[in-house]
Amino acid sequence: MDDSVIVSPDWLAAHLDDPTVRIVDVRDAWEYDGIGHLPGAVNIPFDSYRDESDVDRGTLPGAEAFAALLGDAGIDPDDTIVAYDDTHGVFAARFVLTAIEYGHDDVRLLDGDYSAWNREYETTSETPEIEPTDYEPDPLEPEESPLVGYDAVADALEHDALFVDTRERDEFEEARLPGAVRFDWREVVDEESRRLKPEANLEELLADRGITPDREIVLYCNTARRISHTYVVLQALGYEDVHFYEGSLTEWLDNDGEVESGPVSAE
After folding, report:
1. Less crowded by CB within 10 Å, the N or C end of the chain?
2. Using CA atoms, how far apart are residues 266 and 253, in angstroms rounded to an integer?
């Protein structure tokens, strides 16, 4: 597993004293304050960087709004960011994807979540002192971005792209993109340890669904939250040709895109 994408609790524990490693807790403020958090972590709640008004593509908050959040948290563009939540990383992965889109070079996901960390390492209720920064975003150019829109997805349906639906079975059976395979994002998580399954197990799980590094892959769900986690995992496993349908099924249906429904015998 590439630790430039996903880091273990042991890695993070060894870097707690590094001032260039900034830990971001994306849980609600009451969890951060009332339950505790990782030492040195700053709080940037999920709702603060997800904007349903579509000021940018999908539910991205816009480059300037996101930069203001990072600046208020005292983060510099050169810092290494490690994000976590307490939901197996799915909300933190959305933060990772957003930071990548707006040009932060080094942003990583913590393997596991707050509960996984808390089993081995101390937490705190002390809020770190923050010195705000003047964070300047550097959004990716469209050709550099993993995000794709409706037209690109429609084009991908005409060639050998593999559409991966990361939702639950009942959602998948109700409506899905034509030819899509289902891979519930939670399948990569070990429920007992709350961390990712071993790399060999992940590769086997993915290969069983035909999700292999040689394929062009388009990920979607309903509103692009769950695919964030799958996207980060695939990146950590070395997958290179992975597209992220930000509008997901919500946009697809709004545009009267073709769908399939019903059970799939191979599921």
Report:
1. C
2. 25
Question: CA 31 to CA 15: how far, in whole Å?
Answer: 24
Whole-angstrom distance, CA of residue 60 vs CA of residue 70: 15
Does the pLDDT at position 200 exceed 50? yes
| Token pair belonging to 22 | 């900034």
pTM: 0.93
Are 108 and 171 contained in the same domain?
A: no
Residue 44 lies in a domain: yes
Mean of pLDDT values over 58-82:
92
Residue 243 forms beta bridges with which residues?
Answer: 218
Residue 238 and residue 189 share a domain: yes
DSSP per position, 135-199: ----PPPTTT-SEE-HHHHHHHTTTTPEEEE-S-HHHHHH-B-TT-EE--GGGGB-TTTSSBPPH
User: Residue 242: helix, strand or coil by DSSP?
Assistant: strand
Closest residue by Cα to residue 219 from 58, 65, 61, 105: 58
C-alpha–C-alpha distance, residues 204 and 210, integer Å: 10
**CA distance linking residue 22 with residue 84, whole number of Å:** 11
How far apart CA 87 and CA 68 sit, in angstroms, is 25
As for how many domains the chain has, the answer is 2
pLDDT above 90: residue 50: no
What's the CATH number where 156 sits?
Answer: 3.40.250.10
Domain that holds residue 16: 6-120
Under a CB-based contact definition with an 8 Å cutoff, are residues 220 and 165 in contact?
yes
Residue range 85-112, pLDDT digits in tens = 999 999 999 999 999 999 999 999 999 9
pLDDT at 177 over 80: yes
Q: Are 228 and 93 a contacting pair, CB within 8 Å?
A: yes
- Asked whether the predicted pLDDT for residue 201 surpasses 70, the reply is yes
